[in-house]
Specification:
- The protein has about 160 residues and is α/β, with parallel strands linked by helices.
- It has 7 helices and 7 strands.
- Helix content is about 40%, strand content about 15%.
- The strands form 2 sheets. Strands 1-5-4-2-3 form a 5-stranded parallel sheet. A two-stranded antiparallel ribbon has the order 6-7.
- The chain is globular.
Length: about 160
Amino acid sequence: MTTTQLTTNPVLRVPPAPPAAAAAYFRAHLAFHADVSDVASALAAGGDPGFVVLDSRSTESWDQGHVPGAIHLPTALIPEQAEQLLDRSVPVVTYCWGPGCNGATRAALALAELGYQVKEMLGGFEYWAREGFEFETWEGTQRRAADPLTAPLAADDCGC
């Protein structure tokens, strides 16, 4: 492959970062994010997972479905209610609707600015439900079949 081919290829138009820089970036990325599968696994293991899950959506959204055991605290209420609901020594994992919504990011920012350790759950409630994890609604507990585009159907985990 020639240099010309490399520079015209849209993937390699900007060359990959050096390995040390890439490792630092991906390590930092993991410090800020958790995925729904990892959160579900930690919660299902029983006992104290070492973090709390926070749903930053509206009451109407919460009623439609939320992660079992999550704390409901809409983003706008974080500055006035976080201290009553959360322990600063316990990391918080925020979520909102899904990848098309940055509500969990705004909630994580608000919490970090108040001194909380925080991660954002990638995929939000959408991927929680799509991966087939149990969720609670105002009508009780529900579970949807796993979406084969987001979760393996014949295995306990995706292997990643």
